[in-house]
Design a protein that fits this description.
By secondary structure, this protein is of the alpha+beta class. It has one domain (23-176): Thiol Ester Dehydrase, Chain A (Roll). It has helices spanning 30-39, 89-105, 173-176, and strands spanning 61-66, 69-75, 111-120, 129-140, 143-152, 159-169. It has a six-stranded antiparallel sheet, covered by helices on one side. A hairpin with a 2-residue loop joins strand 4 (129-140) and strand 5. The chain binds dodecyl-COA. Dodecyl-COA binds next to helix 1, helix 2, strand 3 and strand 6. Belongs to the THEM4/THEM5 thioesterase family. It is a peripheral membrane protein.
Length: 179
């Protein structure tokens, strides 16, 4: 297996996903926190990322949070393959989108992914349990800057994927208007 060179893989962040100097510190909304711990499935069960019974979905379990840092896990199943025996990169990006979106949710607004940048650091074999972490690095207007990583086998396992993103706050109509 190819060994990644950490010196060349410091961060997926670009200027677009780096908070500006005058960004505010993230503040967790107590009501969103309540959603996280007591409702969990507030968005329904159809989500490809976290729906517990979506066929071939990621079925990510949110395992906890500390401030805006959130944690989750999922298992790579054969239907998540790209190259034989290995997770598809799009699956790993979707997993990062989900956990980054979870941290954005904790801020209390309704956020959608505007931009998602991903570094694929090492291959992830089918059967792996992937441990996801995400956090908010700053808020500026409607923009929430996010970053996170996925590790193989445990919270201290080797990093397989890193992501940085900017999420944009949207009104409720974003989800309800007819298109
Ligand atoms: C416990 C339960 C947990 C629940 C946890 C739930 C987890 C769910 C996770 C899944 C999340 C998703 O996948 S969401 C689905 C994927 N995403 C989408 O479908 C979004 C599609 N795109 C859009 O609808 C739109 O482009 C928007 C809303 C993103 C932006 O449009 P807009 O509202 O007109 O805003 P606009 O004026 O263009 O931009 C507002 C500001 O954001 C910046 N901005 C906009 N787009 C970008 C961009 N790509 N990259 C950088 N910056 C951007 C602009 O420069 C501007 O900055 P400034 O001028 O203010 O400085």
């Amino acid at each position: 297996m190819t060994v990644p060179n950490p010196a060349r893989r410091t961060s997926p962040r670009s200027d677009l996903t780096t908070p500006p100097p005058d960004a505010a510190e993230p503040r967790v909304d107590p009501k969103a926190e309540l959603d996280f711990s007591e409702i969990g499935d507030v968005l329904g069960n159809a989500c490809f990322g976290c729906g517990p019974e979506v066929p071939h979905g990621l079925r990510i379990t949110r395992t906890g949070h500390e401030g805006s840092t959130s944690y989750g896990e999922f298992t790579v199943i054969p239907e998540h393959q790209g190259a034989p025996g290995l997770a598809h990169g799009g699956i790993l990006a979707a997993a990062m989108d989900e956990i980054l979106g979870t941290s954005a949710w904790l801020l209390g607004g309704r956020y959608v992914t505007g931009r998602l940048e991903t570094d694929f650091v090492r291959p992830v074999p089918v059967g792996s349990r992937v441990h996801l972490t995400a956090r908010c690095t700053g808020v500026h207007g409607r923009k929430a800057y996010m970053e996170g990583e996925g590790r193989i086998g445990g919270p201290d396992g080797p990093v397989a994927v890193r992501a940085a993103a900017v999420f944009i706050e949207v009104p409720l109509e974003h989800f309800t208007e007819e298109r």
